[in-house]
Amino acid sequence: MIIVSPAPAAFGEVFRKEPSMSVATVESPPASPYLHLFRRYLKQQGLPVTQQREVVADVVFSTTEHLSVEEIEARLKERGERIGKATIYRTMEILVRSGLVEDHDFGDGFKRYEHLFGGQPVHDHLVCTHCRKVTEFRSPELQRIQDSVSREHGFSPTRHRLEIYGLCAECQEQGVTVSYNGLTCPAWDVA
C-alpha cells in the first residue's frame, strides 16, 4: 500500500507501508526525467556527471521562470548549496548545448535561461525596454502564420524564437514614452 504525504508537491515524499511493519519508511522521490536526460547527455559527451551540475540543472528544471546566473546562484544559496558562478556558467552552457535549456538575451546585459520541458506550451516574449519585464504569451494566430509561411517555403521548423520589444502597460501608464533617437529605420517610416 502506498500512502502519499499531506503535501507531496512540497516535500516530494512517498511513504511505503510494509505489510509486516507498523512503521512507514520513506522512499526517495524518483529523479526528475529532465535530470535523467541531462545525465544521459553528459555521459554521451564524455563529461563528468557531478552533483554540482545536477543541482544547478535542478534549479532550472524546477521553475518556469527565466533565470539569470545571479538568480540561479541565489536559489542555490537558499538551498544551502555553495556553487561558484564559473561552475554555474559552464553548466548553463552545457544545458543550452544539450537542447534542454534555451538562453535569452532580452537586452539587459546578461542571459536568462528557461528549460524547454514541463508542459510549457510554445510561447513568445514581450520585453519592456524600460523596466525589463518579460511577459510570455501564446498566440494561435501567430502559430498558424508561422506554420503557413513554413509550408509555403517547404521549410520544416524545429523551433522558433519571437521577442517583441516595447513598453509594457505599467510603464505606459506611468508616462514613459519610446525614444526614437538613434533608430536607423524610424517606426513611423515603416509601412
TrEMBL record:
It comes from the Bacteria. The keyword rRNA-binding does not apply. Its main location: cytoplasm. InterPro entries: FUR, Fur_C, WH-like_DNA-bd_sf, WH_DNA-bd_sf. GO terms for molecular function: DNA-binding transcription factor activity; transcription cis-regulatory region binding; zinc ion binding. Fe cation binds at residues 124, 160. It is found in: Cytoplasm. Zn(2+) binds at residues 128, 131, 168, 171. Keywords: Cytoplasm, DNA-binding, Iron, Metal-binding, Repressor, Transcription, Transcription regulation, Zinc. GO terms for cellular component: cytosol. CDD domains: Fur_like (cd07153). This is Ferric uptake regulation protein.
